[in-house]
Every structure is written in C-alpha cells, then in structure tokens.
Amino acid sequence: MKFIYITTVFLLLLLTTFVAAQDSSCAGRPPNQLCLKPMNVGTRGRGCRPSQMWYFNERAQRCERLNYLGCGGNENRFCTLAGCQNSCI
C-alpha cells in the first residue's frame, strides 16, 4: 500500500513538471505585459545618460533598436537584443 502511495505521488509530481515545461514553451501563451507597452524613448535631463537599447514592436512582432534618452520611459526597454527576444518572443 505504501509503495502504491509513493508511486502515485511521484507520478503526479512528474506529470506536473511535464505540464509546466510545456506551458513555458507554448507559442500561444499570453505575451509578457511589458512587451505590449508602446515605444517610449524617455526624456533628457541632468544626470540622464542616453544609450542604445531595444524594445519590442508589437505591430511588427520583433525587437527593434531604441535610442533611449536616459531617464523615464516605460518597462518595454531592454539592454540587449537577446534580452528583448527572451522576454517578448
């Protein structure tokens, strides 16, 4: 009886892990909400350091360059192309 209980628990854990792995690679999952925000280059100002960054263009469904002005803006801003792609595609 104990063996059946332990085996059942193990199989349920294995199944849960498998389902979670499938969900994370599901192409139809809802997009990361920060990726849906519009491009925002931020503002200039004292102490702001402009830099080239990346944002997700929802209409084109790809990551594009962003000339960030250094302050403000929104969360749809990534330091690298890979970071943008990993979060949004």
UniProtKB/TrEMBL annotation:
Pfam families cross-referenced by the UniProt entry: Kunitz_BPTI
Chief location category: secreted
GO terms of molecular function: serine-type endopeptidase inhibitor activity
Protein origin, superkingdom: Eukaryota
UniProt entry tagged with the keyword Disulfide bond: yes
Signal sequence, renumbered to the chain: 1-21
Domain BPTI/Kunitz inhibitor, chain residue ranges per copy: 35-88
SUPFAM superfamilies assigned: BPTI-like
Entry keywords, A to Z: Disulfide bond, Protease inhibitor, Secreted, Serine protease inhibitor, Signal
GO cellular component, as recorded: extracellular space
Record flagged with keyword Disulfide bond: yes
PROSITE patterns xref list: BPTI_KUNITZ_2
Record's subcellular location: Secreted
Protein name (record): (Mediterranean fruit fly) hypothetical protein
